[in-house]
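ok so I'm stuck.
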Amino acid sequence: MNLNKFEDDLRSTYAKKRSKELTKRVASLFEHIHDEWSLNNEALSLGELKIISTTILERETKTLHNEVQDLLDQKERIERQLERASEEFQNTKYIIFDAIEESLGETSFQTLGKLHQIKLQSIDLLDMLEEMVESAIVATLEKGHDTEETIEEITKELTFETLSEGPLSTIRIRQVLSTILETSIEMADATPNKAEEIIRGTMRGIRSGLIKSISNFKRQLIYMPDEAKLALIDGYESLHNELQRSDLLFTQMVHSIAEKSSTSSKALLEKISKELHYDLQELVQISKETVEIMRDRVSSAVQRSSELSAQTAKEAKRMGFNVWSSAKMAVSSALKNAKGRIEKK
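replied:
not stuck anymore, here's the structure
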């Protein structure tokens, strides 16, 4: 049999079917195949049955296929528009703060410090994290001494401040730690004679920053009001599971980055990771304590939620999220502490 002719015939024939019922349209096609091609159902080959199925699928799903394709095209356009708008949104913030600073003129360091604090609180720190890490490491290298200790302090503060911008989540933890470490590795590759100090200082810093962030999260859980507990329900399982094995989260993140790094940086990451292995006990301990408190708070939040009416629960959850969001830390301390350490050297 000429399968091309068979396919063309089926496409043409099925396109003319006008019955409102799918089963009747399909049955009519099989009757056509039997009458015109002398093929019984049992005699159909794999290739012939595939042509029949494809013909029916394409015809019956054509409208939905086109709709999905149109939506995908719209999605791509919207994503491009969002990316451009988001970038313009952040850039406009920079321009506005530059204008404010220029209008202040020759003012005191304290006043500028307050303005910079407001500026950093108004801009998503994660968006500028890579640039901040790079600039801080460059400044440290220019000083030429205490490189490892200074970088450790810098990355500790940057890790803590960036994680403290919003609710602690597994996605944000991975993003922050990976961004800082990857940026440091790029700097280490560009400065081979300081590579080990840069990478060791960074790994020790992000570990300490993560411990500090989880400790802060633990304190928030202890004193959290009932309304805010409801905000924990979203993403609870993921964060709960990750915190139970926070040391594994840390080592897996390092291993994943090592696999993508240069040969020299990979060797350093593996070496320093082994050195830090026994230093992760503090991270494990604070994570376990936090998990216990988190489990208790979420349990009481679920119970409380069931007692509320649907509308009241929705409003309480919204309030909880707002309470959580409003607790954002003053991110300027990261740069301030880092600059202080650098200037003292």
